[in-house]
Amino acid sequence: MSPPQSEERTVPRTHALTEAGLSVVDPLAGDWSCRSGHEAGLRLTDDDAMTAVFVVNDDMAIGLVWALHERGRRVPDEVSVVGMDDIPAARFQQPALTTVVHDFDAVATEGVGLLLEEITSPSTVERVLYEVSPPLVVRESSAAPKAET
């Protein structure tokens, strides 16, 4: 599930799925709210083949988990859910939400540093790509894939 402007969050997901030999499903759009996660979750619950969902923010992941619960799908026994941002409420959900942590302070510090460097010593480089490897905080909403029977 992804809000329309979240390509920087969905491209790595697509790359990782492709690299792992897994099918890539087009993301559902949302507006970053628990409500939109819940609405998307209701649309996804009838897909018995679905075993995991990556959601581009924790609020939408929380809504999705609630929709799965309402429809009788057990998290993480039947469906693993991973959010992104590690909002304070993520650890207090039932089940506690597995999430990707962003160090926004580090990204902002790096960005300001690159900007100051460009101001003081302009280069011919039009764009600088700064990559981060955010950690995954594994909590109760995710489990190892089940073995094929």
TrEMBL record:
Keywords carried by this UniProt record: DNA-binding, Transcription, Transcription regulation
InterPro entries associated with the record: LacI/GalR-like_sensor, Peripla_BP_I
Keyword check for DNA-binding: yes
Transcriptional regulator LacI/GalR-like sensor domain mapped to chain residues: 48-142
Keyword Transcription: yes
Stored Pfam families: Peripla_BP_3 (PF13377)
Protein's recorded name: Transcriptional regulator LacI/GalR-like sensor domain-containing protein
Organism: Streptomyces graminofaciens
Organismal lineage: Bacteria, Bacillati, Actinomycetota, Actinomycetes, Kitasatosporales
